[in-house]
Amino acid sequence: xxxxxxxxxxxxxxxxxxxxxxxxxxxxxxxxxxxxxxxxxxxxxxxxxxxxxxxxxxxxxxxxxxxxxxxxxxxxxxxxxxxxxxxxxxxxxxxxxxxxxxxxxxxxxxxxxxxxxxxxxxxxxxxxxxxxxxxxxxxxxxxxxxxxxxxxxxxxxxxxxxxxxxxxxxxxxxxxxxxxxxxxxxxxxxxxxxxxxxxxxxxxxxxxxxxxxxxxxxxxxxxxxxxxxxxxxxxxxxxxxxxxxxxxxxx
Amino acid sequence: xxxxxxxxxxxxxxxxxxxxxxxxxxxxxxxxxxxxxxxxxxxxxxxxxxxxxxxxxxxxxxxxxxxxxxxxxxxxxxxxxxxxxxxxxxxxxxxxxxxxxxxxxxxxxxxxxxxxxxxxxxxxxxxxxxxxxxxxxxxxxxxxxxxxxxxxxxxxxxxxxxxxxxxxxxxxxxxxxxxxxxxxxxxxxxxxxxxxxxxxxxxxxxxxxxxxxxxxxxxxxxxxxxxxxxxxxxxxxxxxxxxxxxxxxxxxxxxxxxxxxxxxxxxxxxxxxxxxxxxxxxxxxxxxxxxxxxxxxxxxxxxxxxxxxxxxxxxxxxxxxxxxxxxxxxxxxxxxxxxxxxxxxxxxxxxxxxxxxxxxxxxxxxxxxxxxxxxxxxxxxxxx
Lengths: 251, 384
Known about the structure:
The complex is a heterodimer.
Chain A: E1 7-15, H1 19-30, E2 43-46, E3 58-65, H2 68-77, E4 81-88, E5 91-97, E6 103-108, E7 122-129, H3 132-142, E8 146-150, E9 158-163, E10 166-173, E11 185-191, H4 195-204, E12 208-214, E13 221-225, E14 231-235, H5 237-249
Parallel strand pairs in A: 1-2, 3-6, 7-10, 11-14
Antiparallel strand pairs in A: 1-3, 4-5, 5-6, 7-11, 8-9, 9-10, 12-13, 13-14
Helix pairs in contact in A: 2-3
Chain B: H1 3-17, H2 23-35, E1 39-43, E2 48-52, H3 60-63, E3 77-84, E4 87-95, H4 101-138, H5 143-152, E5 161-169, H6 172-177, H7 182-187, E6 194-198, E7 201-207, H8 211-225, E8 227-233, H9 239-254, E9 259-264, H10 268-278, H11 283-290, H12 292-301, H13 305-314, H14 319-326, H15 330-344, H16 351-368, H17 373-376, E10 380-383
Parallel strand pairs in B: 8-9
Antiparallel strand pairs in B: 1-2, 1-4, 3-4, 5-7, 5-8, 6-7, 9-10
């Protein structure tokens, strides 16, 4: 892969589950009071993606590269396996299984677009996996990223993937916070202004709070399950700045 | 320090938490400090309200599966019921058994007191909103005044909203005392979606497309404390007049029975009637004019010609069914309809007059805020 091939989260897929109902719910998550925000175009809902998709649905990030074919060779060389190929939003998209069995996609990076920090959009994504070190090293190699491993007090041993200085994704040691029987899964974070008000609003819509509003070194966040049981997160614009500063401080 | 001193100090630390800026958080932190064990308050749906440490793992659904909780540990946790007005609304969970159970019970009582305090404030706001909504539904407020008063409660009626109406058979008091969303109590803000009680029914006004999600959750709550829980959802509506219409749509959908139902209008006359109302046509005045001879006769003679006519139209002109519904002899009904024809100069059996009377009675109902089931009898509700 060429040295200047850029890597970024291009799309976030909701695979399987009740995709129409999930789309309706996350359209409401994206809708922010006093903002002209519509659904996040980065988030796509795919009705079925084969037998590996959990019944209630699952989030899968699609990494985009402006050298897609080289990126595909690289992810395969480091040990991923092709699971399926989909056409989503008019674009071909391949799904892979990483060595920790977590799913991810590869697609072409769209034309450069301005960096968005709009409310109601997916701002970041974390991988929860019982094989955190192995997974972080895999993604670092496969996506030409660096790993910043923060030795923070448990629970929540956290690794941070950055491309250059740009935040790409986080990797959480799932065994610190969840039973080992839970399969590896991704959790996207929507950007909201008032975390507690949003937690109350989404609870009214049937979401369950898994982790109430919590402060962290990368900004406050909360984790919720949608009405169908799929986990998602909320964070504030403060995390955008803190994530970027975090990436820069470890160059 | 004696054991009694230590016990008093622990109780004092818990009680002092209620004076903190965020009392429930302070209470859970204090209990965690005393016990060194993870502590959480979890609502009865399994949502974590407060947890110390924040990222502690809780088998939340398992912990709230039995309410009120048993004395014996569940999933390695001691549980105590947190009650609001005598009803369990959450559990206080402490992992392990590192603090006296009696201290946990005391903390659960304090948590209940704090939630009750917050709930009382929110209930006051809901009462005020209820008064405004009752005026909207009764048609006492014009578009501008209604919009202004609803905006005072944070509702911008220039954006489309859906109305959700729910009911359950049981204690009406429970409908008012039920907390609905404990996260709202924690934020110390208003309800995220306007919520009040009107005519012993729960009423929510929510943004377009949110109605079904809110309705399903409301049904879950209503079914937890009452029988025959039912929830109706309106179509998205704009403006004060639209909100009023939405209320009746939701109420009509609710009348479909147990479960969640969404109003869906199918026939043209109802759609046209609704459209004319939304456009601000003086339907009430026109209807009163059309029915003036009947209304006057009813008032002077203490009769029920308009009600009889409404029922006859609702039964699609079926004399037997109408007589049975009104609990009168067929001849009595025939005499009443003959009187209607004499007073109005219109033959009720002619299709053109049938439409005239249907529009008149429906328009009159809507303008007076009376039972509107006749308006929506031809609209159907969609099961969800």
